[in-house]
Amino acid sequence: MIAGARRGELNALLGFAERSLHTVRRYWVWEVVWLFYSMVSVLSIGFLASGLGTLGAGSGTFDLRRAQLYLLIGSLLWGYLSLVFMEAAYAIAWERWEGTIEYTFMAPVRRVTHLMGICLFAIGYGLARTLVVLIVAIALFNLDFSRANVLAAVAVLAASTLPLVGLAIFTSVLPMLSPQKGEQMSIALQGFLLLVSGVYYPLSVLPVPLQVAGYASPLTYTLDGIRRALLNSATVGEELPAILILLAMGAAMIPVAVWVFSWAERRAKRLGLLKRSG
Predict the structure, then answer these.
(1) pTM of this structure
(2) Cα(161)–Cα(149) distance, rounded to whole angstroms?
(3) Which residues neighbour 220 within 8 Å (Cβ) at sequence distance 6 or greater?
(4) Distance between CA 268 and CA 174 in Å, rounded?
(5) What is the three-state SS of 141-197?
(6) What beta strand segments (E) does the chain contain?
(7) What are the pLDDT digits (tens) for 146-186?
(8) In sequence order, what are the beta bridge partners of 62?
(9) What letter does residue 109 receive in the DSSP assignment?
(10) Least enclosed by CB within 10 Å: which of 47, 117, 205, 206?
């Protein structure tokens, strides 16, 4: 009888393990996303180590303070930039979950007005949250921005708003293309941009294919431009090439993103993908 009880406990033990395995198999896309994110984290640390010598380069010696500022600026800006384009995706996903997205789409407003409203909130919220984090970082690390050209940094940040809105709208398309997997793909896109946009290291440490992807990302020019302004006192005139690139990217991305969103909206309505499930 004792042996039978032990056998039953063993079967239950294996049964719970098998149930967990089936859960993983059912939601395998999430597992791929988290695996990708883990890979990005490891690779980012590896590339950071490769580029650490150049981060604090100054007067032929390693400048720890400069490296610290480089990394903190990258972290702050990434927190803001990633929040903006992810907020749009979450807005669409949450509306679908709440069951209000069809009513939003039926409202007598232009789709560009709807999307710009979402992006406007994301930008305002992102700036407010980043400001709080910046104040805490300055207090904890005693950061010195006395040599920074704040005007040039603000000019680059303002120019980056256009392509950032374009990225946000593109990201918001994903939950409509696949209600079950779109949000996961948004996270995967966020991880890829983190890897190739030079958040924690210069693009020169990346393999050539990733460098090419990095130069196609507007976040790269935003990060480089603001770092030059804050660390090297670059003027607005010196930042003009980066500003023009960002404005050109935004002018191209926003109309295309709005058109893609409208196409995805029509497709979702035709296939019944707006209905809440789960």
Answers:
(1) 0.79
(2) 19
(3) 196, 197, 198, 203, 214
(4) 11
(5) HCCCCCCCCHHHHHHHHHHHHHHHHHHHHHHHHHHHHCCCCHHHHHHHHHHHHHHHC
(6) 57-58, 61-62
(7) 788 999 999 999 999 999 999 988 888 888 877 666 667 77
(8) 57
(9) S
(10) 117
